[in-house]
Amino acid sequence: MAKTAKPVDRRLAAIVSMDVEGYSRHMGEDEVGTLEVLNNHRAAISNLIDGHKGRIVGTAGDSVLAEFASAVNAV
Question: Is 9 part of any domain?
């Protein structure tokens, strides 16, 4: 008797990945200032992502990974 495969839940998504150019160099030159600028930029980016119906799904170091249900919203 063959097993029936379970249906797979699928959804469309647009994924946006971003990071800071020259982050390591900036950290080497001015760690405190770089972290302040990074935090300010993350706050602005978070507001933009929220405002376009997206959500941040991950951050690591200087990177941000965001998901949008629509490519139009992601752009």
Answer: no
Query: Average pLDDT of each block of 10 consecutive residues along the chain (75 residues)?
Result: 80 93 95 96 96 96 95 92
> Cβ distance 65 to 16 under 8 Å?
yes
Report yes or no on 2 lying in a domain: no
Q: What is the extent of the structural domain holding 47?
A: 14-74
DSSP 8-state symbol, 5: P
Task: Report yes or no: 61 and 23 within 8 Å, Cβ to Cβ.
Answer: yes
For residue 29, the surrounding DSSP H or E stretch is: helix 23-29
Residues in a beta bridge with 56: 66
**Is 4 inside any structural domain?**
no
**Is residue 6 domain-resident?**
no
Note the pTM of the prediction, 2 decimals.
0.78
